[in-house]
Specification:
There is one protein chain. The chain is of the alpha+beta class and about 160 residues long. It contains 5 helices and 7 strands, in the order αββββαββαβαα. The strands form 2 sheets. A 5-stranded mixed beta barrel has the order 1-2-3-6-5. It has a two-stranded antiparallel ribbon with strand order 4-7. β1 and β2 form a beta hairpin. The protein starts with a helix and ends with a helix.
Amino acid sequence: MSFLLGIILVLSVGAAEAAEWTLSGRVVALKDGDTFAMLDGKTQHPIRIAGIDAPERRQPYSTASKDNLSRLVFNRSVEARCYKRDRYGGNVCRVFGDKGQDVGLEMVRAGMAWWYREYAKEQTPEEQGAYQGAEDAARVTKRGLWKEPKQGAAVGVAG
């Protein structure tokens, strides 16, 4: 009997981790072009934007990417639809700005982040199409980090 209860408990915990949760609040700090801190009441939450990868510090376009994210979300209200935690304990979320725009998609569209193909399976087919189309358009028109051809290959996520 206790074995059965143990199995039920493990399955319940797994189901709870698979559940999505929504956080709403004001963006109070930016780490880089794909990570920020959001204040929800008195609690600060680390948020990693799902579906994108932005240049890290000391990589080309890192400052431009962070500045673009700042224009989109800093000191503004956002909604983060989270579905998992990253290896650092941060929330991985689809982020929507104060006008309802998909922030990750806007970053890719501006050429300030790569579509993170490795995690495409976590997106809906519609999101995959939108992100791929946005990245393709940014690459063809040489926006942002696509101004230099080697930038796409530098991270190994663009194809």
